[in-house]
Specification:
The protein is of the alpha/beta class. The chain contains twelve helices and eight strands. Helix 7 links the parallel strand 4 and strand 5 (141-143).
């Protein structure tokens, strides 16, 4: 089989999770106020722009909670609440397609590039989103996690294990991975690709800032999936000459 294959994270390159994460943060603060019967008068809600900038620059969640007016045991309680809320079906509905993801996936399809998702999300969540947004056609294969907590923790060793499983399975199916890339928006994606000998593409439309991603030395740093697809399209066209 000669079709090119890319491995791609789900959240970040394809899905914009910023609204869900911000709504989870707000819902957590609301519940803290409710638990204190309105006594948490010092709670301060960060704006979405402030919150997302902190997340992109890897500011610890404990620090974000502190800047929101919480102290000591309140922070621990808040973080437990957020961890339990973030994957609630009600909040998952806030996920949206990244602005240029559909166009990028269309280019991959036109060029005969197979897109294999490697995500820490449960497969059923991913399939439901793809079906709701008419993206089933864009994905050739999917490797997810059985628990919905792994994606929020986003630990590199989980992503390495998933990518390793995906690579082995694709090779068994006979696909040529000589020029395969790993595309993602976090350090876990970059580290996984590097650990397994793939070129890495860090996209800056997700949950990490360009400067933070650059510190992990990805092979390429690009704004979104559409830009990645255009680059691959140029390579495919040159290869056909």
């Amino acid at each position: 089989m000669t079709r090119s294959t890319i491995f791609c994270d789900f959240d970040g390159p394809i899905v914009d999770v910023s609204e869900r994460y911000y709504m989870t943060y707000c819902r957590g603060l609301e519940q803290m106020q409710t638990l204190a019967h309105g006594g948490e008068g010092c709670i301060r809600y960060l704006s979405k722009a402030q919150f997302w900038t902190f997340k992109q620059n890897r500011v610890p969640d404990r620090q974000i909670a502190h800047w929101s007016g919480l102290e000591g045991p309140q922070i621990d309680r808040f973080l437990d609440l957020v961890s339990g809320l973030v994957n609630h079906p009600h909040l998952l509905s806030h996920d949206q397609i990244q602005a240029n993801a559909y166009a990028g996936l269309s280019i991959f399809q036109q060029c005969g590039v197979r897109v294999v998702l490697v995500t820490l999300r449960p497969p059923d969540q991913v399939m439901q989103f793809l079906a709701q947004h008419d993206l089933d056609w864009a994905i050739s294969d999917l490797y997810g996690m059985p628990t919905d907590q792994a994606v929020y923790q986003n630990q590199a060793h989980h992503k390495i294990e998933r990518l390793q499983t995906a690579i082995a399975a694709q090779k068994r199916q006979g696909y040529n991975l000589k020029h395969a890339w790993m595309i993602g928006d976090t350090e876990a994606d970059i580290m996984a690709g590097q650990a397994l000998g793939l070129e890495t593409v860090a996209v800056t439309c997700g949950i990490r800032s360009p400067s933070y991603l650059q510190s992990f030395r990805p092979t390429h740093l690009m704004p979104d999936l559409w830009t990645v697809a255009q680059r691959l399209q140029q390579q495919v066209m040159l290869g056909r000459r």
